[in-house]
Design a protein that fits this description.
With 275 residues, this protein is an alpha/beta fold. The protein has one domain: Rossmann fold. Helix content is 39%, strand content 12%. The protein contains ten helices and seven strands. The strands form two sheets. Strands 1-2-3-7-6 form a five-stranded parallel beta sheet, sandwiched between helices. The chain has a two-stranded antiparallel ribbon with strand order 4-5. β6, α9 and β7 form a beta-alpha-beta unit. The longest helix is centred in the N-terminal third of the chain and has 21 residues. The protein is globular and about 50 Å long.
């Protein structure tokens, strides 16, 4: 990957950390773990714009990781970067969980309640088929979120109806709000489960590698439009890029204090300019 994308990764991490610190609330752990995915998806994979209806679309199902989404959209030109400073504040368009009733560009679903994004994405994909639109719908969901039953109805529906213009990525970090996914509600072998639902399953062993994410998303595109929906199991590290946040569910939904912020920012130097 290019130096520009490496710089964007560092700056996105800084945005996330500063946003949640400023209001002492938010979800830094999962946001940090998905930075590389967002950077690659929006800058190398998706064909997206604010105006064109016949475009690739993105659905964030695990809406609590909104900081990484907002940073990505702002730095892709969807709205001014300085608006990131309003995160979670009264009357801000950048609420803790994304909402589309405030006309924030790039937001396609209000995703506070978990387990719904896949169903919405399938609906969008079907509408594209009806409109002879060959673009792709991308969905990101968390692994803990797959404990919601609605997802499995959606997985079954998509394969049964040959919804092959959708690419779903599972943030497979093994953590959720109250502990590890294995301890809270073990889902067993997700790959075998999804294959039994007749999905094409791809895997990313290092979802925090720009190259690995890029290569697998490209492979997913090559496998789309071939009769089967595609899902990627993307192994990431919660809190990636900040050593004291990594590998722990504790940073699912708490903000760093002043000293922790300073330490975290020192590990991620400013590259493209802070908001």
């Amino acid at each position: 990957m290019s130096k520009n994308l490496d710089n964007l990764v560092l700056q996105t991490r800084r945005d996330i950390l500063r946003m949640v610190h400023a209001v002492n609330s938010g979800h830094p752990g999962g946001s940090l773990g998905c930075v590389e995915f967002f950077v690659v998806l929006f800058n190398k994979i998706m064909k997206h714009s604010q105006e064109n209806i016949s475009k690739d679309m993105f659905i964030l199902s695990n809406g609590h990781i909104s900081p990484v989404y907002y940073s990505t959209l702002a730095r892709a030109g969807y709205f001014e970067i300085k608006e990131l400073s309003t995160f979670r504040k009264i009357n801000s368009r950048l609420q803790g969980h994304p909402t589309n009733h405030d006309d924030l560009p790039g937001i396609n679903i209000s995703s506070g309640s978990l387990g719904q994004g896949l169903s919405v994405g399938i609906g969008l994909a079907l509408s594209k088929k009806l409109n002879n639109d060959n673009s792709i719908v991308y969905v990101l969901t968390g692994d803990g979120e797959l404990q919601e039953g609605q997802n499995w109805e959606a997985f079954m529906y998509a394969s049964a109806n040959n919804v092959d213009n959708i690419i779903v990525t599972v943030d497979y970090n093994g953590q959720q709000i109250d502990g590890s996914t294995e301890d809270v509600l073990d889902m067993g072998n997700l790959k075998l489960k999804l294959e039994s639902f007749n999905w094409k399953v791809l895997e990313i062993e290092n979802g925090n590698s720009l190259d690995d994410v890029y290569n697998t998303l490209n492979e997913a595109k090559k496998n789309s439009m071939k009769g089967k929906p595609v899902v990627i199991l993307m192994k990431t590290v919660m809190g990636n890029g900040v050593d004291f946040m990594m590998y722990s569910h504790k940073w699912h939904g708490i903000a760093p204090n002043d000293e922790q912020l300073e330490e975290a920012l020192n590990q991620n130097p400013e590259t493209l300019g802070d908001y």
